[in-house]
Amino acid sequence: MLRNVIKIAFRNILRQKFYAIINLVGLTIGLATSLLIVLYIVDEFSYDRFHADIDRMYRVNLHAKLSEQYMDIAYTGAPIGAALLNEIPEVEYACRIAFQNDINISYNEDAYTEKKVMLADSNFFEFFDFELLHGDYKTVLKEPNSVVLTETSAKQLFGFPNKTNTPPIGKIIQYGTEKLACIVTGIAKDPPANAHFHFNVILSMETWLPSRDSNWANNILMNYVTLKNGADWKQAQEKFPSLVKKYIAPLVQGYLGISFDEFVKKGGMYDYVLEPVKRIHLFSTVDDTIEPRGSINTIYILIAIVAFIVLIACINFMNLSTARFSDRAKEVGVRKSMGASRKRLMLQFLNESILFTFISMLMAYLVLFIVLPGFNNIAAKELTIVTLFNWKYLTVLLVLIIVVGFIAGSYPALYLTAFKPTDVLRGKVKAGLKSGGIRSGLVVFQFFISIILIISTLLIQKQLVHLAKRDLGFDKENIFVINNASALDKNKIAFKEELKKTTGIKQVCIASAAPPQMAYSDIFKPLDGTNSEIGITYYFADHDLLNTMDMKLVSGRFFSMDIPSDSNAVIINESAAKKMAWEDPIGEKMQTLWKDDGSDKREIIGVVRDFNFQTLKKEITPLIIFPGSTGNLMLVRLEAGDYRTKIADIEKKWQSMTSGTTFDYSFMDENFDALYRKDQQIGKVVLIFTFLAILIACMGLLGLATFTAEQRSKEIGVRKSMGASSISIVRLLTMEYLKLIAVAFILAVPVSYSIIRWWLSNFAFKVNMGLLVFLGGGLIVVAIALLSVAYQSIKAANKNPVDSLKYE
Description:
The protein is α+β, with helices and mostly antiparallel strands. The chain is built from 26 helices and 25 strands. The strands form three sheets. Strands 1, 2, 3, 4, 5, 6, 7, 8, 9, 10, 11, 12, 13 and 14 form a 14-stranded mixed β-sheet that branches. Strand 21 and strand 22 (601-608) form a beta hairpin. Helix 1 crosses helix 2 (17-45) and helix 2 (17-45) runs antiparallel to helix 10 (296-324).
């Protein structure tokens, strides 16, 4: 029977090559796309699953509210891990990690700036399942000044592995600008891509003095815990409030002068929350994370897209199969008259459809193999087709073939086998086959989906352009950021003055932070009698910040080198002025909590226009700028033009004033772009899949238009013989499709609006959707549809009516 099914299927494919190719290509593209999205989703859900105890591993996050400012962060205090281990019975292990950026690493004459330096407790390789290639996992991070290198950093510093293949264990490297001597104690395998944090160098936590800080409120590192087998994380969570009362309440009393209960009554909050490590990549919502995360919303979007694309491909198959199989009406009639049951005929059609889908799946694997490298480049992934040869996924794909084949073949099977053999053989079934109600509904559904995808894609791209071109409140273009200025040590000011004399450099300033990565915040108290404390972001910068950043003063003045008292002054932004309810902030004073005796009081001398110092996904919050030139960053405003010569000049001066420290720099506009790289990648992925969905829909429309033109050839011949023009014939054939697209557009607009409004809720600064985008989406579909049907319509309209009517 199977042999007979295959023979009949191939016979029909060869008989109707055009329709068969459209169906085959459409299903292949749809299935290849679905495989690609499955690979992407599988990879997103695989994050951190390589840890053996992943179901028991949690990160301790801080959820707090201080003076109406919410904090939802992954960073917590240094002493928390030990306290959880000793005071919460459910906790079995605890491990702390921290990160340092732009660290100078050197060995003999070789030096480079390392971007991914991690500090970790001695049990790091026991807690996490990162592979240690050389060294004892129990002791590699036990002693101060111990360093573990990854394969990448070992190759960069020592060329390992080399001919002798001797690991550089025991070698001494210099760490940081202070050239701290550290001994290499281990070589680790590069962290897998699907880890929620990565590193190239690990320094023992014992080396880092802040790791011994006993202040619970000094949130400087990340605490992870593993619960005991069978322990309920909710029971562990319920014990956190008692720890807060024990360790945080005294700090609140000391900082704010009120009891913790009063702090809570005034709307304050301070809670620690356990977050499963396996949910961090897709589900975490905390700020200050180590690396850009994925998003479960993206997964939902991709699942919807793959469902849409497969449905569109199936609809094409159903439409064209119903149309094409009308030529098989006599075959059905003859088989029925010979005693074939309807069930047997339905099974024949479904088997053909499943076989067709199976062939398409094989071709989809081939297509996937070809396009996967390009997709990895666009999506910044390392997906491999090998994943899909796992028996679990092969089983799922087999089920997918059967389901898609059944969906695609169900309507033709049910429709064609329903007629009586006498009606079929007498030709009475033709009228029924011309009835296009269901086919029209399916076409409407196809373009309903296509219009949603087009409008959503247009608005996503519009939002990304809006983020790139939005006025940030300062000019981010042409700002060159030296990331490790502290390496200049005592030469920092001299280097700055030397740069200011250099041709092509407009202005230079020193700062402790720079947009868009400004996250340090603390509690400050306005000295205006309100007795309220306010949580505000802050940073330090020298007197040249205003001109370097091209920021705008709203009132007052900026820091001046000629006014000594400015060392005790501050600048605030408009949001801070509003937060403190000051109509005229100039001359007002505020107090920091940095000195126990409360003597650190600062006068406000200027207000700058609000500017975006963080991601545009956040509203602009209050900001304080303190005077100071001890920061690790140097911001250099360059004249527009070729940067290569200017950067080379700066680097020469750098090398003359540092002792072999790597010159590490970036551009501020590129730093902003990096914030939205994940969104840009998703935008590109959605754009690609939208194009594929439209391509499949248009292929189906082309096939349907060809079939319609063939079915109505006699009608067209009669109309032309009665004097109808070719233009009127083309209009007749295309108008029915335009009506269907109009219906699809009306249905798609509100759905598109709801989807994009949901997506834009992730951004504080949103683009105006505008009516033109929705109209543009509709016009694009109309244009594509007309291109799809125009050729067949014009061909049918220009056909000689004699050829259509000569057998009548």
